[in-house]
């Protein structure tokens, strides 16, 4: 059921309108049907009333004819004379029709002490001979129990109205009148009407819906792929509400871009303003006599510089001015690996098949450097391998360290969080290494995944789309 | 002591300029300090300098503009000093004719090493070396681009080089056919690694071969010459 529910704005709008229209049509048809039915009853009872009046009139004639000896055989006609009413107490009465009949009789100068009117779908046997208006036999063979109104042709008998009236000092006169079904052919009418209305309403609605949803769609696309610094405004289109929304979005993206620009300017300034005193410090450190002290100070300054570098690169990421190049990944890995082996780390890589990717080389080098740096920090040996999986190139950096508890792996990508719980500087870098590496990988359309290896140690995989 | 090497140090930050000048003086150089470009210009008129250390980011006329002036009018080598590490800026600096580029914070020893390398080059008359102005060399299907310091193979794929490898390759390519011994190669390229030694040359050569030779064990491009030297074989086209 759920998947039948349309997801788009226009779809939902259309569905609701369609359902509501259908409901309205149903109610409408029901009312029409009821109206037609009442009308049929009124017609039938009117005919019965005049028949009774006519019958009584003829009875008078018959009586005088009798007196005059010209009596004709009294046709036991359609009027039934009886001491009790043909409308028995258990039959539903139709007060409205009774009032009408009373008025009609009064208009014709006929007075009755009581008038009862009922409608039946089928006649009692004793009333069977006292029917007017029915096609012969039809009402008998074809009781109206068939679905009312659904399949009847316009002129079929759909029931009977019985009028039973008590003469002031005489018997009850009763007559049944066939109700001619002229109820509309509901289903077909309903369908036709509904289709017409749908065509009239839904087509413009679809067009209008498109008019609303197209700008929404482009707004969605813009919001999804929003790049700070984008100066091109989204065209304001659609109805005023939507235009307002687009204007608000344009304003917002402008604000975001400005904010990010300010941030960049600020970070640039921080970078510059921190590096200059750092450089001054670095120069002054050279005059420290004690070798050990000096080396420690230099290492400290280098740490700060690296951290600054990480922070600035992370902040500038996505706005790098470096263009992409198609790079032989083997040589890239070798270059980074050599940096580590030069420092005495055990980092292994066996040059394999040529693999190329379209990347910003300095950034990817940096990401890889961070991964290998982690591997050498937490393990003794780092082993680098490359495999191709579909259209992704996977650079695996395996270490023989203790690994990371599975539940903590994702947290490793949080900025300033390191494997060691302590923030002891002696144990690691800025805490931005993995954050930055992942950000770089993702900017290239790849990712970084950490996984504990079966035989112990951690595998960090840098994936890149093949160029 | 008149043949002391004379350095012009241009930086608006006194906090860096002064200790750096002190350090350089201690290393046996003669140093003039300028806090901005206009002071630097007047000093340039007054003295003969052997090398200029130039900060890029300065209020007023910046280092780039001053560098353009210097390289147009004189042949004094320039080393840029900058806090920025963005790749593009390095390229701009080198395109403007600066001889080298060092980022803050830097090791003063490395700065001195680079000064020495450049001055040695100047002495040998190979001036302005080859690492300038977007030049490129073609050899054995490879293209070495100086502006981006990149090496491109026959299929247009960029092969990544370390700074040391780049300088080593550039030294060999720009002197193709000429046998260079380890000392010469160190002379030309040293400066990056302050503590470079003979072994470092062999190491870098073998890394270069791994990257560019079809069969690194039987090198066709960088050949070893009996007696301890290397030569770049094959034709080199300078673009």
Give a short synopsis of this structure.
The complex is a heterodimer of chains A (467) and B (239). Chain A is α+β, with helices and mostly antiparallel strands.
Give a description of the structure.
The complex is a heterodimer of chains A (467) and B (239). Chain A is α+β, with helices and mostly antiparallel strands and 467 residues long. Chain A has nine helices and twelve strands. In chain A, helix 5 (240-285) packs antiparallel against helix 6. In chain B, the strands form three sheets. Chain B has a five-stranded parallel β-sheet with strand order 2-1-3-4-5, sandwiched between helices. A five-stranded antiparallel β-sheet of chain B has the order 9-8-7-6-13, covered by helices on one side. The longest helix of chain B has 16 residues, at 108-123. Chain B starts with 5 loop residues before the first strand and ends with a strand. Chain A binds chain B through residues 268, 271-272, 275-284, 286-287, 298, 301, 305, 309, 321-322, 325-328, 331-332, 334-335, 338-339, 351, 354, 356, 361-362, 365, and chain B through 13, 15-16, 19-20, 23, 26, 57, 81, 83-88, 103-109, 150, 153, 156-162, 165, 207, 210-211.
């Amino acid at each position: 059921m759920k998947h039948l529910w349309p997801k788009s704005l226009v779809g939902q709008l259309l569905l609701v309108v369609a359902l509501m229209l259908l409901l309205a049509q149903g109610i409408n048809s029901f009312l029409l049907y009821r109206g037609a039915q009442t009308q049929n009853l009124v017609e039938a009872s009117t005919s019965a009333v005049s028949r009774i009046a006519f019958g009584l009139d003829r009875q008078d004639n018959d009586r005088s004819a009798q007196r005059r000896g010209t009596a004709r055989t009294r046709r036991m006609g359609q009027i039934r004379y009886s001491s009790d009413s043909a409308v028995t107490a258990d039959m539903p009465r139709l007060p409205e029709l009774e009032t009408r009949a009373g008025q009609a009789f009064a208009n014709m100068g006929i007075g009755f002490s009581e008038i009862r009117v009922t409608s039946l779908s089928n006649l009692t046997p004793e009333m069977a001979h006292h029917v007017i208006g029915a096609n012969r036999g039809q009402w008998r063979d074809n009781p109206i129990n068939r679905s009312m109104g659904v399949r009847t042709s316009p002129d079929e008998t759909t029931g009977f109205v019985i009028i039973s009236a008590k003469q002031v000092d005489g018997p009850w006169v009763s007559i049944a009148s066939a109700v001619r079904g002229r109820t509309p052919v509901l289903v077909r009418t309903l369908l036709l009407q509904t289709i017409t209305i749908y065509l009239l309403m839904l087509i413009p609605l679809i067009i209008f819906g498109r008019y609303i949803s197209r700008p929404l769609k482009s707004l969605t696309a813009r919001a999804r792929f929003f790049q700070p610094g984008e100066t091109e405004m989204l065209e304001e289109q659609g109805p005023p509400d939507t235009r307002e929304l687009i204007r608000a979005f344009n304003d917002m993206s402008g604000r975001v871009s400005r904010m990010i620009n300010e941030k960049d300017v600020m970070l640039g300034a921080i970078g510059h303003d921190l590096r200059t005193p750092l450089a001054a410090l670095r120069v002054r450190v050279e005059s420290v006599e004690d070798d050990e002290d000096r080396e420690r100070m230099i290492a400290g300054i280098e740490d700060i510089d690296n951290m600054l570098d990480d922070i600035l690169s992370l902040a500038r990421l996505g706005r790098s001015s470096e263009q992409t190049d198609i790079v032989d990944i083997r040589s890239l890995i070798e270059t980074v690996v050599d940096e580590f082996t030069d420092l005495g780390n055990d980092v292994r890589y066996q040059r394999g098949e040529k693999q190329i990717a379209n990347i910003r080389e300095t950034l990817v080098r940096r990401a890889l450097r961070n991964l290998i740096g982690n591997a050498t920090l937490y393990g003794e040996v780092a082993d680098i391998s490359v495999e191709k999986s579909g259209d992704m190139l996977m650079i695996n950096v395996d270490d023989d360290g203790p690994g990371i508890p599975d539940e903590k792996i994702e947290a490793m990508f949080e900025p300033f969080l390191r494997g060691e719980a302590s923030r002891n500087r002696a144990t690691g870098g800025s805490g931005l290494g993995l954050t930055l590496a992942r950000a770089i990988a993702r900017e290239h359309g790849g990712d970084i995944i950490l996984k504990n290896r079966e035989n112990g140690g951690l595998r960090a995989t840098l994936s890149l789309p093949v160029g | 002591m008149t043949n002391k090497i004379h350095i012009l140090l241009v930086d608006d930050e006194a906090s860096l300029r002064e200790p750096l000048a002190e350090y350089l003086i201690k290393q046996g150089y003669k140093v003039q300090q300028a806090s901005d470009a206009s002071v630097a210009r007047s000093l340039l008129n007054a003295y003969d300098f052997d090398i200029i250390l130039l900060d890029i980011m300065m209020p007023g006329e910046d280092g780039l503009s001053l560098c353009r002036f210097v390289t147009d009018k004189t042949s004094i080598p320039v080393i840029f000093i900058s806090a920025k590490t963005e790749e593009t800026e390095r390229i701009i600096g080198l395109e403007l004719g600066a001889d080298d580029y060092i980022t803050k914070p830097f090791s003063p020893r490395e700065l001195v090493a680079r000064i020495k390398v450049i001055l040695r080059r100047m002495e040998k008359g190979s001036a302005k070396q080859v690492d300038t102005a977007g030049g490129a060399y073609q050899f054995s299907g490879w293209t070495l681009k100086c502006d981006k310091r990149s090496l491109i193979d026959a299929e247009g794929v960029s092969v990544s080089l370390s700074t040391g490898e780049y300088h080593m390759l550039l030294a060999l390519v720009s002197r193709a056919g000429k046998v260079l011994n380890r000392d010469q190669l160190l002379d030309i390229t040293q400066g990056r690694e302050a503590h470079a030694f003979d072994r470092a040359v062999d190491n870098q050569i073998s890394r270069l071969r791994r990257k560019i030779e079809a069969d690194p064990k039987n090198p066709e491009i960088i050949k070893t010459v009996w007696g301890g030297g290397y030569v770049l074989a094959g034709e080199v086209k300078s673009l």
